[in-house]
Amino acid sequence: MHTTHAVSAPLWRGWDDRRVHDHSDDHRQGHNRHVYHCPLRWGDMDALGHVNNGRYVDYLQDARVDFLFRTAKELGADDLETGLLVARHEVQYRAPLVFRPEPVRIELWISEIRAASFTVDYEILDVEPRRTYVEARTRLVPFDFGADRLRRISPVEREALSKLVGS
Amino acid sequence: VTFTHPVLVRWSDIDSYDHVNNVRYFDYLQEARILFLTEVVGGDYFSDHPCVLVSQTIDYLRPILLRHPPYDVDVWVEAVGNTSYTLGSRIVDRGGDADIVYAKAVSVIVAVDGATQVKRPLSQTERDALVRHVSAT
Fold first, then answer.
1. Fewest Cβ atoms nearer than 10 Å: which of A59, A112, A127, A148?
2. Chain A, window 18-77: residues with a beta carbon less than 8 angstroms from a chain B beta carbon
3. pLDDT of residue A72
4. Reduced to 3 states, what is the DSSP secondary structure of residue A19?
5. With contact defined as beta carbons under 8 Å apart, do A123 and A134 qualify?
6. Contact A144/A151 with Cβ under 8 angstroms?
7. If DSSP codes are grouped into helix, strand and coil, which group holds residue B111?
8. pTM, whole model, 2 decimals?
9. pLDDT digits (tens, 9 = 90+) for A26-81
10. In sequence order, what are the residues at sequence separation of 6 or more whose Cβ sits closer than 8 angstroms to the Cβ of residue B48?
């Protein structure tokens, strides 16, 4: 399925989950990027008439939750959901985005895996015509809420996450 | 610290981990940043000195929890360029003996023409006001 079709097709005429979430599409392009189609809300715009800087980070979060708490979970990393903290966000705002009924495409992938942290990179974009709105990077740390401390990435998680490393 | 703004956590800022969600930090920093610029540069900030945020980096150091009183957000100027400037900020608790820092952020802002959104040189008023507030943390 070509998810780019979802951009022009009416999204809410019945919920087609593949239009929101797709990890098959970009494997074909060799970059191993996860694709998430994020719906905008009218209320995401601020007094300057464009999407507020903080709302992009909400979009990234929804894409990341789909990526890690669903795709990574399907690969066996199901403990991540019990405690995963953001240690750092770096966000570059490239172009303004204005409300529209069509969702915006978010591509995301894992760029680095360390002993007790890993990094997710993202791009928020339109494919046709090609336009990048945001490029961003988040460092995440698994956290054990029971023991109230950071923990290392388990071998099972490492194996799952390595399948999601992209570029 | 020359400028600080209190931010009160809202009930709806809390996520399923029972702490303030990481995205809300962007909102807290924004509140303080806009008030800082309004106070420091003056005027109706966005009409008189249009600008856009082009990059922001946040380091998360501690969880923020729902409570009264508010947390403090400090803002200062780190650098001033021709068409852009860099602000430093941090979310801090001054209630105890020592300051506790929850997050640190660096924000790069570019001055733009309000109508065309094309970048423009900083005006003398903006530049002078910003330079006066340059400080090392």
1. A148
2. 47-48, 52-54, 57-58, 61
3. 84
4. helix
5. yes
6. yes
7. strand
8. 0.87
9. 544 678 999 999 999 999 999 889 999 999 999 999 999 999 988 888 888 888 88
10. B41, B42
